[in-house]
Automatic annotation (TrEMBL), chains A, B:
Family statement: Belongs to the alpha-IPM synthase/homocitrate synthase family.
Positions of the UniProt region annotated as Disordered: 220-243
CDD domains linked to this entry: DRE_TIM_LeuA3
Gene: cimA
Listed name of the protein: Citramalate synthase
SUPFAM superfamilies assigned: 2-isopropylmalate synthase LeuA, allosteric (dimerisation) domain, Aldolase
Source organism of the structure: Thermocoleostomius sinensis A174
Amino acid sequence: MTSDQFTETQALNHSKFLWVYDTTLRDGAQREGLSLSIDDKLRIARELDRLGVPFIEGGWPGANPKDVQFFWQLQEEPLMNAEVVAFCSTRRPGKTAEADPMLQAILTAGTRWITLFGKSWDLHVTEGLQTSLEENLAMIRDTIAFFRHHQRRVIYDAEHWFDGYKCNPDYALSTLQAAIDGGAEWLVLCDTNGGTLPHEVSTIVRDVVQFVEHRAEIRKQNPVAGNPQPPTPNPQIGIHTHDDSGTAVANALAAVMEGARMVQGTINGYGERCGNANLCTLIPNLQLKLGYHCLDADRLTKLTDTSRLISEVVNLAPNDHAPFVGQSAFAHKGGIHVSAVERNPLTYEHIRPGQVGNCRRIVISDQAGLSNILAKARSFGIELNKQDPTCRQILHHLKMLENEGYQFEAAEASFELLMRQALGQRQALFEIKEFHIYCDVIRGSCDLIRGVDEWRGRSLATIKIGVNGQDILEAAEGNGPVAALDAALRKALINFYPEIAAFYLTDYKVRILDGAAGTSAKTRVLVESSNGHQRWTTVGVSGNIIDASYQAVVEGLEYGLLLQNQAKAALTS
Amino acid sequence: MTSDQFTETQALNHSKFLWVYDTTLRDGAQREGLSLSIDDKLRIARELDRLGVPFIEGGWPGANPKDVQFFWQLQEEPLMNAEVVAFCSTRRPGKTAEADPMLQAILTAGTRWITLFGKSWDLHVTEGLQTSLEENLAMIRDTIAFFRHHQRRVIYDAEHWFDGYKCNPDYALSTLQAAIDGGAEWLVLCDTNGGTLPHEVSTIVRDVVQFVEHRAEIRKQNPVAGNPQPPTPNPQIGIHTHDDSGTAVANALAAVMEGARMVQGTINGYGERCGNANLCTLIPNLQLKLGYHCLDADRLTKLTDTSRLISEVVNLAPNDHAPFVGQSAFAHKGGIHVSAVERNPLTYEHIRPGQVGNCRRIVISDQAGLSNILAKARSFGIELNKQDPTCRQILHHLKMLENEGYQFEAAEASFELLMRQALGQRQALFEIKEFHIYCDVIRGSCDLIRGVDEWRGRSLATIKIGVNGQDILEAAEGNGPVAALDAALRKALINFYPEIAAFYLTDYKVRILDGAAGTSAKTRVLVESSNGHQRWTTVGVSGNIIDASYQAVVEGLEYGLLLQNQAKAALTS
């Protein structure tokens, strides 16, 4: 369902259709630590379009050069289905809409839909805008009418709706009346400060639905005199929530159950302070549990990928514990669970993970029982027997290493190598004899203001390895010590294993295990590698960050070679 | 309110009293990536006790040596007020409770309260336990009666309550009846799979409250024949929720509004898969918004500290975006917000941050406007004038550095140094001329199984600095390259600044800025330092992890000296 079909569908019984409105690019970008380039914004918009989101709020054209350019680029290469929506505020107090350059800039963005936010809370009108309550109503009405006059369709965001309604319900409702009079097609109730709880949302949305139905009835009987606009359909209600009370998703659900038909939120719940309603949680709840239609069912299975891809674009680590799409959302750890979930998944999983494109995981950890080890082995394609003493040996070894700080939950490639080693299935492809690293930094000053360009640095690594009975000594330089070491290792190995030319590192994470010990603490390094088709993660732990990195890098190369051999074996068998 | 007062308070009108039950140490520890030592468990228990939590679930005595020892240590050094509760399952099918060694082990933990979980869902009885529905009822009743016989008070956790009730309400209710007959004082309804939504919780809890009231009435008229127990008060209802639908907190609120009087959850929402109900969100909602009494008001102000301290103990980065207690929960970023929130906080904050021990923050970032810079300067005790061209210069410089990858949101100490530099208030305490680092690793093999003990490694750093016109050259060794560099720098500085002996690093975080470039990517290092009283964070960015670490370490020392000088100046003025 695209927004094009909105008017048509209104004629149908659409009580189970919901319009998803994504504001990752605007409200989401307010999150502390998140900053989007134009390319990032375009990638995210195209990803949301592929997911089937009908409305994508792109930004405030004119607020900064980035947002202007974003809308221009989309005019040249439009999205497939989604409507990109421009966002802005009402006209300035005491001026006409036509004379407001900010509103003219909005029109140049060339969108069909515009989301306009206005003040619902009397306190914000008098204290924030420092204008009269009457003028605020005129600002809402005029601005919407201005956009209607320019053939734009308007979504009205009632800012601070719930707080405003609680303080002064009559005035708050009169702002909605102004939006209706201006010709808004959607009235979106915003819990801007995020302080409202679900039972309050239910009551207030119920009041608004009644108010809108009642007014629409009156309006049908007495059309507004002199309104030049063609009659618009009854405005629909939308909901926009924030997570300051930890109930953003529940608040949106409560609103939908009272009749709201648009849900606004962001991917992964990004947003200012505690974030916005997380669409990756909200959509599956609405669609799989309450039977509403938000996305086509085959699109819903892209949700997990979309969530993770966007977290990569914005360069924030994904929340492994996120409902539905997190890596741990369907992870089973305790021994009892694991055997039960394998017998009957329904007894331990609230939905089938595949419905949102996620999958079940059996977690390896220091709480692992034998049944976890067996399940994990099976997922690696290794047949193990519970009676086999190697099983207990692997479990014992695993616990010992985890005690030292290794974490195999996140480094399954290293765990597979460990398991294959215990089973005598791990070939020693090469042997590291020694390595040396030299870093020299000569700098003019420790002056941050004058910048980091003044120093000259160099990292050089030498490495000696044994391969096929030969000793190979190589040296290489790099940006930093780990890059130098990686380069030297590859140089030494490439003649024996030319496949490694296709491997590259996709992520590198460092965690200090005992923060209190500072730079002397143990370091755990996780390295993610790729061959262009597959990704795998390996782990290294040491008191020395170089050595921990080195362990993870070496295992990453080794695991890549193992995958390559398995692929070859599969082809020839 | 401690649990001691529970029976007494029952006589009072306690409709607004709630009992908080923390299960961080048991259900929370199921979180992927979380592993607790006995010391960790004891520290967390004492912290929860200080916070005023009346019930702390400690673990399952006998399940592993750690939990046994935990309870023994608490018998020797008991908590101040909280009840530590032992957790276990019902007796085995087909045996008596007295003959079950698992239940005997629970008694040795010496707790006054025991939480027993039993099956509510017929499917789990027949498929999971593989016993009859009747035997399950007997298991619940007998086990509780066994504990009552041994003078224990019992909380009954109805596992999979909501799913079970939806499948077979009659059977589910008969399990509660068995718990009532056994003598349980609390019936806790558990949404074990986390799939239930708030409106379902409301309906089902309402049914249970009615059921319990009705049964209690009948029982008063017809006491159970042959029940040797003294009559127990009417059991109360509790709620235990998981966040798989993103509604754990809302579900608990819904249950309380229908009459539940115990809320179970974990600090920071730790728990299996997507976690348990987050007590740091639930408690302020209940207490500040719904007017229930969970903690004494002066204890509530310790919530933020408790949340952060426990995240340190479990060694997981705190969630900056957590409601109420997150570092960003009351952070203001956009320019309009900042000026408005300073005029009237109520218009942009749903509670006063101090009520939960948190505080307002004005965020410095590439979206910063001049008013943010001014607000930030004020918080550093620096008076700046908006007209001063230095303001714009700082803003410009900030944006340039953030573009390079610096992030001052998390490194306020570095930002203060930058600001003081622009204002000519930063003294060059020392000048780094050059440094060199040597790492040698000579190892027997790259064999993970045979362990990391076989290699010999060494990191050595030399550094040349200029202080007071003198050149100082020093060398030091360390666990790793950064530790060696830190040691050499301190050695060079200690004669000039003996105060640095008291500084130490409390955390060290590394983030790769462009994951796709792997080990050649830019590295951002955040270093947290302390002088025992205060903590501060500094940042370094470079393509070379050593250099980035070095920048952050140097600024950490410099900022520590600045704090020391300010303290001295305050004393003499």
